[in-house]
Amino acid sequence: MVLRGYVPTSEETLQTLAALRLQSLNSDFSTHAPFPRLEELFPPHVLHARLPPPRRRPPTKCRGARLRAGLLAGGLWGQALAKQRAERDQRLRGRLREEGASTMAAIVEKWKLLQGMGRPEAMAAYVALVREWPGFGSTLFDVDLCASPVGAGPQRLWLGIGAKAVSLYKPGEPEPLDSFCYGRISSFGASDSSTFRLSVEDRDLLFETSQVDEIAQLLNTYLASAGARRLPRPQEPATSPPASDPTTLPQGLCPMAGPWQHRPPVGSFHS
C-alpha cells in the first residue's frame, strides 16, 4: 500500500519507512549490503510528481489547418517534432534519475541512524508509522462516485471499508470526506456488474467499480463478524451470513505478493 500511494503521508515519513525497511532487510548500514531498487522502497509516483507536466498542444479546430498539420507531420516538420520529443524525454529521464539519487541518499542517511535496531523493532516501528493514518485497518477500493445528493459528476475516490465504518477518501488525502458507521447503512448491493449502490439513511450513493462482488462480500463479512444481520443484496433473499473467515477477506487495491504473501497487508491489519 505504501509503495502504491495508498497510505497518505509526508515525503519525510515515506523516507523513514524506506529506511526502516532497509534496516529490516539488511540490518545495520553497510556499503556491502544489497540495495533494492528505489521503487521497491519508495513510491515512484512521488518522484514523477516533481517533474514538470507535459505541455499540451492546443486543439486545431479548422479542418484545413488539421490537414496542413497532418501533411507537415509526415515531412521534415514531423521529424523535427519527433526529435524535440526525444530530447524532452531524455531530459525528463535525466531529471528523474537525479531526483531518485537525491531521495536514495536521504533514505540512506536515515538508515544509518537506525544502527543497532533489530528486525522486529524495525518492523514494529514501520507499522507504528503507518498506523498514524486514520484509515489504517481499512481495505481500500478504487471507485468512481457516479451519483450523489448534490448531483455532482463522476469523482474518483477511495472507498475504505473497516471494521466499524465505511469511509470515502479523496485519493492522497489523509482525512475522509465522509464516514458512515454500519448502523447508518440501510442497504447495499450491486445495481449491475459494475455499479455498487450504498444507501445511507436518506442518501443513495452509486459507485462505478470493477470490484462490486468484493465490496459486497467484505461488507457482509464485517456485519457478520459484528453479530449484525446481513443486509440483503438486490435480487437476493435475506439469509443468515456464512461463518466469517478473516483470512479470506478481499484485498481491494492491495493484492498480496512477493515475500509478504503469507502475512496480512498493512491495509488489512486490525487494531
Residues in β-strands, percent: 15-25%
Largest sheet: 7 strands, antiparallel
Order of helices and strands: HHHHHEEEEEEEH
Strand arrangement, major sheet: 4-3-2-1-7-6-5
Give the low-confidence spans.
Answer: 228-251, 253-271
Alpha-carbon distance between the two ends: 17 Å
- The CATH architecture designation of the domain at 2-52 and 86-132 is Up-down Bundle
Q: Count of DSSP E strands?
A: 7
Q: Please tell me the overall pLDDT.
A: 78
**CATH T-level topology of the domain at 2-52 and 86-132:** Acyl-CoA Binding Protein
Q: How would you sum up the global shape? A: flat
Domain FERM: 1-233
Region (Disordered): 229-271
Protein name: MYO10 protein
InterPro entries: Actin_motor_Myosin (IPR051724), FERM/acyl-CoA-bd_prot_sf (IPR014352), FERM_2 (IPR035963), FERM_central (IPR019748), FERM_domain (IPR000299), IRS_PTB (IPR002404), PH-like_dom_sf (IPR011993)
Report on this model:
- With 271 residues, the protein is an alpha+beta fold.
- Among the domains are: 2-52 and 86-132, Acyl-CoA Binding Protein (Up-down Bundle), CATH 1.20.80.10; 139-229, Pleckstrin-homology domain (PH domain)/Phosphotyrosine-binding domain (PTB) (PH-domain like), CATH 2.30.29.
- The chain has 6 helices and 7 strands; from the N terminus they run H-H-H-H-H-E-E-E-E-E-E-E-H.
- The protein has helices at 11-26, 44-49, 63-73, 76-112, 119-130, 212-225; strands spanning 139-147, 155-161, 165-169, 178-181, 185-192, 195-200, 203-208.
- Strand 5 (185-192) and strand 6 form a beta hairpin.
- It is flat and about 55 Å long.
